[in-house]
Amino acid sequence: MTQDFTGITVSTLELSGNLGDGWADENAAVDAYAEFLTEKLEAALPGADIRVRTQHNTSGYESGPVVIGDDDKMQQIAEGIVESITQTAFDEFCNSDAAAEFIAS
After folding, report:
1. pLDDT tens digits, 11-67
2. I want to staple 8 with a disulfide (CB 3.0 to 4.6 A). Which of 15, 34, 48, 105 is the partner?
3. Left (φ > 0), alpha (ψ -120 to 50) or beta: where does 65 sit?
4. Which of 57, 12, 14, 8 is nearest to 32 (CA)?
5. Closest CA to 17 of 75, 59, 68
6. Which residue ranges form the domains of the chain, and what is each CATH number?
7. CA proximity to 80, closest of 48, 45, 50
8. Helix count and strand count (H, E) for the chain
């Protein structure tokens, strides 16, 4: 049985300048990463409201994902899932077909 995460909201902001070197177009790459991350979070948290925003031409401190919810227990479960996904998602993205077209040659 799949858990329903309705009532959970996950918000995060990804900055194009924080992607690191090696991108042909940082802005396009951060948008593609946001889509990649959104898909992973939506698959892991059915029913949750996932909000992965991007900001172009900027770098700086990113506070990481914020998870809020109506139910404390479900929020704690969601927080663990989000932490697990976000620890590996960028490396997975960099090694995926989704990133290939944005890597500088």
Report:
1. 999 999 999 999 999 999 999 999 999 999 999 999 999 999 999 998 888 878 999
2. 48
3. beta
4. 14
5. 59
6. 8-100 (3.30.910.10)
7. 45
8. 3, 3
